[in-house]
């Protein structure tokens, strides 16, 4: 009995994030020392630091974010050991999108990915009851493709003096969300009258609104393991 308790307690220390004290969410490991944290906690920390929060080794002098990686095995272990955590996280994500009045991208529901629903202009800005959108969402879509399930971490920087920066510029969202999603997100946060006033850029190239974040990462972003850095500014003709 006693042995068992000690073992569980030991495990707990390994599946907890040192930065937030909670169970690991989107577990992300420093490649150099193999210490693991929640992705959002670690990315935020590395904005200001270049060392591992646990062992203090220098991860990289100038680009520490390129030396961290999603740790799927660890996340699977955490979800297996902590009952209800995965469901709670999925609920949090749904809540996050719902509060913003955005459609819930596929994998926040823990389902197959579909770019389709995000491209349909008739559904812009609509929030649907879980049930109906689930059904539409699943029609004819491949299920369980693991490449579609890792969320993308994004840093949204403003590069225009005409617009405000975001209070929270680090966000994490579904790889199947589109550039249009991000435009709506920013427009909502900045109280813009229309998301059409915005351009979003990656490596100084304007992104098409129908591109999924997965597509942007694969085609435009060299640093596969680092969060995707995007800039926004008013559309050129509005400058
Ligand atoms: Zn954390
Ligand atoms: Zn470390």
From TrEMBL:
Q: Main site of residence? A: nucleus
Question: InterPro entries, per this entry?
Answer: PcG_RING_finger, RAWUL, Znf_RING, Znf_RING/FYVE/PHD, Znf_RING_CS
Q: Which CDD domains does the protein's record reference?
A: RAWUL_PCGF3, RING-HC_PCGF3
Q: Where is the RING-type domain?
A: 17-56
Asked if the keyword Transport belongs to this entry, the reply reads no
- Any one Gene Ontology biological process term? random inactivation of X chromosome
Which molecular-function annotations from GO does this UniProt entry contain?
histone H2AK119 ubiquitin ligase activity; zinc ion binding
Localization per Swiss-Prot or TrEMBL = Nucleus
* Keywords from the named record: Metal-binding, Nucleus, Repressor, Transcription, Transcription regulation, Zinc, Zinc-finger
A Gene Ontology term for the protein's cellular component: X chromosome
| Region listing for Disordered, in residue ranges | 115-146
Compositional bias, Basic and acidic residues, is annotated for 117-138
> Which superkingdom, per the lineage?
Eukaryota
Residues annotated as transmembrane: none
Q: By its UniProt entry, which SMART domains does this protein fall under?
A: RING
The record ties this protein, via PROSITE patterns, to: ZF_RING_1, ZF_RING_2
Q: Which PANTHER family match?
A: POLYCOMB GROUP RING FINGER PROTEIN
Write out the function statement from the record: Component of a Polycomb group (PcG) multiprotein PRC1-like complex, a complex class required to maintain the transcriptionally repressive state of many genes, including Hox genes, throughout development. PcG PRC1 complex acts via chromatin remodeling and modification of histones; it mediates monoubiquitination of histone H2A 'Lys-119', rendering chromatin heritably changed in its expressibility. Within the PRC1-like complex, regulates RNF2 ubiquitin ligase activity.
Under which name does UniProt file this protein? Answer: Polycomb group RING finger protein 3
Instruction: Say which species the protein is native to.
Output: Capra hircus (Goat)
Classification from the root reads: Eukaryota, Metazoa, Chordata, Craniata, Vertebrata
């Amino acid at each position: 009995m006693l042995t068992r308790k000690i073992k569980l307690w030991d495990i707990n220390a390994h599946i907890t994030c040192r930065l937030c004290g909670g169970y690991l969410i989107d577990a992300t490991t420093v490649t150099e020392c193999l210490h693991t944290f929640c992705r959002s906690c670690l990315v935020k920390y590395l904005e200001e630091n270049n060392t591992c929060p646990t062992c203090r080794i220098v991860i990289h002098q100038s680009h520490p974010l390129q030396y961290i990686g999603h740790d799927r095995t660890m996340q699977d272990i955490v979800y297996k050991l902590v009952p209800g955590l995965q469901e709670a996280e999925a609920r949090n994500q749904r809540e996050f999108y719902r509060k913003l009045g955005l459609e819930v991208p596929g994998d926040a529901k823990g389902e197959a990915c579909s770019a389709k629903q995000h491209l349909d202009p008739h559904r812009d800005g609509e929030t649907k009851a879980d049930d109906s959108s689930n059904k539409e969402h699943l029609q004819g879509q491949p299920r369980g493709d693991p490449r579609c399930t890792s969320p993308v971490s994004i840093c949204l920087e403003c590069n225009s003096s005409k617009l405000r920066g975001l209070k929270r510029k680090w966000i994490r969202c579904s790889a199947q969300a589109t550039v249009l999603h991000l435009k709506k997100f920013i427009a909502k946060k900045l109280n813009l009258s229309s998301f059409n006033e915005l351009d979003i850029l990656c490596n100084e190239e304007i992104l098409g609104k129908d591109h999924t974040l997965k597509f942007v990462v694969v085609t435009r972003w060299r640093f596969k393991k680092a969060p995707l850095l995007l800039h926004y500014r008013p559309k050129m003709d509005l400058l």
